[in-house]
Design a protein that fits this description.
CATH class of one domain: Alpha Beta
Number of helices: 14
CATH architecture of one domain: Roll
EC number: 5.2.1.8
Number of strands: 11
Low-confidence stretches: 1-24
GO molecular function: peptide binding; peptidyl-prolyl cis-trans isomerase activity; unfolded protein binding
GO cellular component, one term: outer membrane-bounded periplasmic space
Radius of gyration: 34 Å
Catalytic activity: [protein]-peptidylproline (omega=180) = [protein]-peptidylproline (omega=0)
Subcellular location: Periplasm
Length: 426
C-alpha cells in the first residue's frame, strides 16, 4: 500500500510509462482515505492462498468472493496502519530486534537459524523484519484502543472457571455407596420434610465418623440400620442427571445429598475416584542464583571460567554466600545475584528448566549459559503446590478476554469504517 498522491505524482512525471503499450500500470483495487490498495497486492495474496489451499487439499470460495474478502482485509489493515500513524505509534529497531530474539527463543533456535527458516519459505530478511514490525504496531494499537476499554468482572471469571472444571471432569469415574429414604404412599408435605430430616441426620452421623453402612436413626422404621448399597464404579454419564452436578464438584470422601427424586431422598458417598485429571500440581523452587555477564571488563570466556570455579567451590563445601561475595569483589558490575524466592519451575527459561528439574534441596545446578550470561543456582528448598484454581481462573480470564476483545474489535472496525472514506473499485 502506498500513498495515492505519490503514485499520481510518479505517473505525471513519467507520461511515457503511462502511455506505453508495453508497460502495464498497477491497478488500484480500493481507496482508503489518502491511501490505496493495489491490485497487485490482492493478486499476490490470492495466489498465495490458492497455492496453500492446493497443497493442503482444501476448498476455497470462488475467485470473486475470495477477492472481495482479501480486499476487505487489506482495507482493514490500511485503517489500522493509518491509526498507528495518527497516534504516533512507533517500533524502533531495538524493540524490533528484541521481538525477533523472543520469537527465535520460543522456537528454541538462534536468530540466524530463524532467518534461514524464513528464507527457506521464500521471504527475505528485510521483508520479514518489516512484517514483524507491522504486526507489533497492530498489537500496540489494539492494546491502546481496544483492550483498555474492556472490563473484566471477578464474578464472571470465577463462574466460567467453575464451568471449565466441570467440563474437564466428564471422563470421571466414581466408586459410590448410596442410601435411600423412601417416600410413603400417603405422602404429605410434613412427611416429605420428615424423611429429609432423617436423611440429614444420617449425613451428620457419617460426618461424625459412623460407618456409612451401619448408621441407625432412632425413629426410622424402629431404629433399624439405614438400608444402603454399594454402587461400585460408575462413569459420570451413567448416573441419573439429578446427581451429576453435585458429583462433578465432589472429591474422595464427599457426601452428596439429600437429593430428592420421585421415590425418595438419596444420599451418596464418594469412596474413590479415577480418571480425574483436574488437579494441576506445580513444582516450586526456593533458590539463590549468580549471574556473570560478559562486558568490556569481563570476557565471555573469563565469565565462563569463573562461574565453573564458583560451582566447583560450592560443591566442595564453600558456602554459597561466601562464593558470591568473592565473585562480587572480583568482577564488580558483571555480577548479579541474590534470592529468587519461591518460583514455579515452569517460569524458568528452557535452559534452566532442564538443569533444575532434577535438583533437590541443597543441590547446585550445573553452569548454564543464556543470553544474559553464565548462571548457577542453589536450591534452598522445593515443594509441590496445587495450582488448580489458579490454572482454571487464568484460562477463564483469557477465554473471556478473547470473547470480549472479538466483539470490541468488530465494533472498533465498524466505527473506523464509518468515519473513513472507502471506495472499492471494479
Amino acid at each position: 500500500m502506498i500513498n495515492w498522491k505519490i503514485l499520481l505524482f510518479a505517473v505525471v512525471l513519467i507520461p511515457s510509462m503511462a502511455c506505453s503499450q508495453e508497460q502495464v500500470l498497477d491497478k488500484v483495487a480500493a481507496v482508503v482515505n489518502n491511501s490505496i490498495v493495489l491490485d497487485s497486492d490482492v493478486n499476490r495474496i490470492m495466489k498465495s492462498i490458492q497455492n496453500q489451499a492446493q497443497q493442503l487439499n482444501q476448498s476455497l470460495p470462488d475467485e470473486k468472493e475470495l477477492r472481495f474478502k482479501i480486499i476487505d482485509k487489506l482495507v482493514i489493515d490500511t485503517l489500522f496502519v493509518q491509526k498507528t500513524e495518527q497516534l504516533g505509534l512507533r517500533v524502533n529497531d531495538f524493540q524490533l530486534e528484541q521481538v525477533i530474539q523472543k520469537i527465535a527463543k520460543q522456537h528454541q533456535i538462534s536468530v540466524d537459524q530463524l532467518y534461514k527458516a524464513v528464507a527457506d519459505q521464500g521471504l527475505n530478511y528485510s521483508d520479514y523484519r518489516e512484517q514483524i514490525r507491522h504486526d507489533v504496531l497492530l498489537m500496540l494499537l489494539r492494546n491502546r484502543e481496544i483492550l483498555r476499554g474492556i472490563t473484566m468482572f471477578p464474578e464472571e471469571v470465577d463462574g466460567l472457571a467453575e464451568q471449565l472444571k466441570l467440563q474437564r471432569r466428564s471422563n470421571l469415574e466414581l466408586n459410590l455407596s448410596s442410601a435411600m429414604f423412601p417416600l410413603p404412599a400417603d405422602l404429605t408435605f410434613e412427611k416429605l420434610n420428615e424423611q429429609k430430616n432423617i436423611a440429614n441426620q444420617f449425613i451428620q452421623k457419617v460426618k461424625e465418623g459412623f460407618n456409612f453402612h451401619q448408621v441407625k436413626i432412632p425413629y426410622f422404621s424402629g431404629c433399624r440400620v439405614i438400608p444402603t448399597k454399594e454402587m461400585g464404579w460408575r462413569g459420570v454419564q451413567e448416573l441419573p442427571f439429578l446427581f451429576i452436578s453435585d458429583l462433578l464438584q465432589s472429591h474422595k470422601g464427599s457426601l452428596i445429598g439429600p437429593i430428592q427424586s420421585s421415590i425418595g431422598w438419596h444420599v451418596l458417598q464418594v469412596n474413590d475416584m479415577r480418571g480425574d485429571r483436574q488437579k494441576h500440581l506445580v513444582t516450586e523452587l526456593n533458590a539463590r542464583h549468580i549471574i556473570l555477564k560478559s562486558s568490556s571488563d569481563l570476557s565471555a570466556q573469563r565469565a565462563k571460567e569463573k562461574i565453573f570455579w564458583a560451582s566447583k567451590a560450592i560443591k566442595s563445601g564453600t558456602s554459597f554466600n561466601h562464593v558470591s561475595q568473592l565473585l562480587f569483589k572480583d568482577v564488580g558490575a558483571a555480577y548479579q545475584g541474590g534470592d529468587l524466592g519461591w518460583m514455579s519451575l515452569y517460569r524458568f527459561d528452557p535452559e534452566f528448566y532442564v538443569a533444575l528439574q532434577k535438583l533437590k534441596k541443597g543441590q547446585i545446578s550445573t553452569p548454564v549459559h543464556s543470553s544474559l550470561g553464565w548462571h548457577i543456582m542453589y536450591i534452598i528448598d522445593t515443594h509441590i503446590v496445587d495450582r488448580t484454581d489458579e490454572f482454571y481462573k487464568n484460562e477463564a480470564y483469557h477465554l473471556l478476554l478473547n470473547r470480549k476483545f472479538s466483539v470490541a474489535l468488530e465494533e472498533w472496525i465498524e466505527d473506523e469504517r464509518a468515519a473513513a472514506y472507502i471506495q472499492i473499485l471494479p
